[in-house]
Amino acid sequence: MPLIHTLGPKETDANLAARTLQDEDPHYRGLPIQLHPDFSSVYANLATYKGDYFLVPVGYQGPAGDSWTSQHYAHWQELSIQKTWAAPTMEMLLVENTEVQNGKAVSHKTTTALLDDFASQNMLSLDVDYVPAKPLAADSFLKGDYQYAIFSQNAEVKLKASHRIIERFQPEMIWCLYQIK
Asked: Record's superkingdom (predicted)?
């Protein structure tokens, strides 16, 4: 039985999109979802996953500066688009730890524009660390080492009194489901 490969952990938009795909499209119902630590590890192992599916957002930005577009062209002979659709992301939060004044932020690379807009509007110079998934940004922020972070709203229940929500975002994302040739 083919698998659907996408980004983990289970709190990611990618996993939510894969589960929604299973619920709404009978062709993919019941297919197991395999979560990966990053999209680049899936791209690097496409030959191992022949016949499976790969779900990736077109907003993908990898750690080496790669993007959905660059990967799409690099792997055009290994991947076949099966389906694309738009869906809102989980709501995202821009948060501040009011007990930390170090100018450090943690975020996923795809939210860089949101963080840059905030820094520009507030004349801040932020030292940003990037993680492969928004749930990992939440985990890092909650350890107390960062003044700012952007992560998905599902981590809101873990916020403390010293954590201030500055802004909420919920943009749409376009998802691309490939079959791996």
From this structure: Bacteria
